[in-house]
């Protein structure tokens, strides 16, 4: 076989003290799909200090046919320089075709540094990935089997399909929840490739003095009912009304980016392209106009109620139920109606 | 101690305030109708730089790559307290993706000379990629710390900062020089100083100075040099660097230096959806809640 054979699909596996980020497993599922279409393998890349066998087993069960494991005390926690150095070395050696990262703070700090060194294209926050051919308009060259990197752009007014026209890898980041996680196959076996790690003292010049981390008590992704507030809510004070409705119907509180940027609610609650992607049974959008970015994070909800005093709000176009009216009057009526349900 | 701090900022369309006029009838974006603003998190980066100068001494240099009218944000940086500003502008930079942009900015940093810290906002609101900061760090061969919320200490050789991580924070110690990116929660950018506004609204690039003399035919080199000298002395000179000034390789800037190509742009057309219209009355809302309970959507 000639050397023109395309490389494998790689997924960067983010793990912290043995806990694998959901987005990494979601990307393995998507990676398998892309790899099957290209006729190549899906491989995971995991770095750490003491990567356990159970981590590797989980990755095999989620579809990694091979896992590159770089284990070194200097890699226990993420810092950009040594992580990028190890991964750049691996890429140069094995030449993957596609390389996907979760768009977490770690992924968003690491992937660009690697892309810069490799002079590879990198597309952030893709909402869809598929294989297609691409004709470079300047060179007229037609490239087969390229990765279409699809994302909203320019304030969500457009959806752009982006292609890396240079040599591989084609690099992307994807937010958590955007791709669906596959069902693991218990006992599935795979390969493990240990990576020789050589780090110089200057690679480890950034040191972590202290670290504080807690599991968020908020589980938007898992919530069956979500009540979300947008810019139309008007103030942090008014957001209590959103919480009250959520509490009444047993739902979680979410928000649009506009409400988060206004400082009315914490970023953990943000739904959308730059927040969390959710698929609840019921999504109640209160005072949310419904930009593409926001809809990208909630359009898969089973039922959507839109409450807005602007009848032209785009959110109505994807709603199952629409209430054109002032949310400050409508929400108390909903609370009252629910409490009086029996 | 004296720190030289380079702040890289971007002028962006105000995507948060897109109105009807922002879209043309054919569904494409009408860039002209969008107000251009100082990218919000770059203001946090500038504020952090100004606070560091106040605490540790030194100077703050603000650089932007953009079209000629991006000087608006450089003047704003001067009103807030920047010491020196640089416009990197050239038609050849147009169409740059983050890789070509970070290469160009790295060339500008090298042309500037020695510095201790490069600060960028975490991301720009027109692309939300957060890529240029880490790419610039790599291009300059510097360590990086990202998602910085606070600088706790800076010495001659090291800096200690608090950075956001998922679900918490880290305190990190890093050597200088380095590159860092700053998040919006780091600080509240200061208002413009009235006195500085009066003083620096006359700040200009060479092109802008020539324009005040009637445009590109003005060629009195001696007069220009004298004016430039006066403006430099008053801190009103905005450096203007093009691709040649930066010694930039032509195949690494603009469209030519950008691996990512846009295959297709689709404007988002919303088809009028079919939704059940519920009037905002007690009775109708009661009906809706009952329907949802019957369908087991609410319990």
Give the gist of this structure.
Chain A has helices at 22-38, 53-61, 80-94, 105-118, 239-249, 257-261, 292-296, 327-339; strands at residues 9-13, 15-16, 19-20, 42-48, 66-71, 98-102, 122-123, 128-135, 142-153, 158-164, 170-174, 191-195, 207-213, 225-229, 252-255, 282-286, 303-308, 321-324. Chain A is of the alpha/beta class and 342 residues long.
Question: What do these coordinates show?
Answer:
- The complex is a heterodimer of chains A (342) and B (299).
- Chain A is an alpha/beta fold and 342 residues long.
- Chain A has two domains: 9-204, Rossmann fold (3-Layer(aba) Sandwich), CATH 3.40.50; 225-339, TPP-binding domain (Rossmann fold).
- Chain A has eight helices and 18 strands.
- In chain A, the strands form four sheets. Chain A has a seven-stranded parallel β-sheet with strand order 7-11-6-1-4-5-12, sandwiched between helices. Chain A has a five-stranded parallel β-sheet with strand order 15-14-16-17-18.
- In chain A, helix 3 (80-94) crosses helix 4 (105-118) and helix 5 (239-249) packs parallel to helix 8 (327-339).
- Chain A is globular.
- The model of chain A has no long low-confidence stretch (mean pLDDT 93).
- Chain B has 299 residues and is of the alpha/beta class.
- Chain B has one domain (3-257): HUPs (Rossmann fold, 3-Layer(aba) Sandwich), CATH 3.40.50.
- Chain B is 30% helix and 26% strand.
- Chain B contains eight helices and 13 strands.
- Chain B has helices at 40-56, 71-80, 98-112, 132-139, 194-200, 206-212, 221-233, 282-294; strands at residues 3-9, 11-13, 36-38, 58-65, 84-88, 117-121, 144-154, 158-165, 168-175, 178-182, 238-241, 260-267, 276-277.
- Chain B has a nine-stranded mixed β-sheet with strand order 9-8-7-10-6-1-4-5-11, with helices on both faces. A two-stranded antiparallel ribbon of chain B has the order 2-3.
- In chain B, strand 7 and strand 8 (158-165) form a beta hairpin.
- The longest helix of chain B is centred in the first third of the chain and has 17 residues, at 40-56.
- Chain B starts with a strand and ends in a 5-residue tail after the last helix.
- The interface between A and B is large, with 92 and 79 residues.
